[in-house]
Structure formats: structure tokens, C-alpha cells
Predict the 3D structure of the following.
Amino acid sequence: MLDTYGNILQTAVLLACSIFSVYKAVKFRSRSWTVLSFFYGCWMLGDVYWLACLIFYKSTPQISTISDLSWYAAQIFLYLLLRYTWPPEELKGIHPVSWLAPVFTAGMAVFFMFWGEIISNLVYAALMGLLLFASIRRIADKKAAGPKRFLPVTILVYVLLEYGLWVASCLWDDSLLFQPYYVFDLMITASFPVFLHAVRKAVTV
């Protein structure tokens, strides 16, 4: 039941964020706001399918490919958003700490393979590794603008929250009274409106 309520809340937040970002995209003819709209929209499509299964079939989807594809696309649009607001040519080299990102995501992929599908975990590792690498590279850039750094920091926190959610789903079962999974899920939901503020700061720098 908590899973259903969490999905309803997250879908509502994503819908509100999507409407606002589409408004900004149309008003300012902004590519960054448009890409953010696609991020919200893709994530919401995955949630709607998941929510429909919870409501009509009283269980999580037996075939999660539809939601996974939507969430894959959302991560890709998030990476494109980072590139558009902070192009690679504006960066001064690659900080060594950035290479921790693919090492971390590869290690986590191996860990998750004990509970999930190999292909899905490899795809998520690649996408999350790319997001982490790009975010850390921009945060560590010596010439990084203060307000502009807020977007990669937001993405970094978002990715780490996702990993916290996934780890919680593997290590804590439904028999426990306290579920860290739902805490991370609420934190991820709360992170979505933060992207609106992060993009606003990034496009006005």
C-alpha cells in the first residue's frame, strides 16, 4: 500500500514539474528547459505504468521493460541537460576523482546482479556512471561558476539517492517495520522540484 501511495505522490510531483518546465520552455524557447521537460515526462511514464500495475493487478509489473525503458530515457535526457547547460568545451581537463564514478557504478552493478537481471544492471551502470562522471567533472572544474555548479551537485545527489533506494530494496525485506526504501523514495521525489531551481540558476549564469 505504501508503494502505491509513494507512486501516486511521485507521479503528481512529476506532473507538476513537467507542466512548469514546459511553460518555461515555451516562454523562453529554451533547449535546457525542453530537455528537462523530457526528463520529467519519461520518468513519469515509467511511474504511470508501474502505478497502473499496482492499482489494477495489485502487484509490481511482471514485465518491467516498459518502465525501465522510460527510466533509461530519463537518465539520457538528464545527461543531455548537463551538456547543454555546461558544454564539455568549457571544461578544463578531467579531474582524477571523476574516474571514481565508473569504478563505483561497475562495482554496484556486480552487487545488484545477485538480485536482478544482468542486462538491466549493466545499462543502469553505464547511464549512472556517465551521469556521475559528468557531474563530478563539472563540480571539480577549477573555473566552475558558483551558481552553475548547483545543477551537477543536484544530479550527483539524485544519483546517490537512486543507489540508496536500490540497495535498500535488496537488503531490507517487507517484514521490517521501518523501510529505508520508502525514505529514499520520498527523498528522490523531493529532489525533482530542485531540478527546476538548478536549471534556472544554470541558464542565467
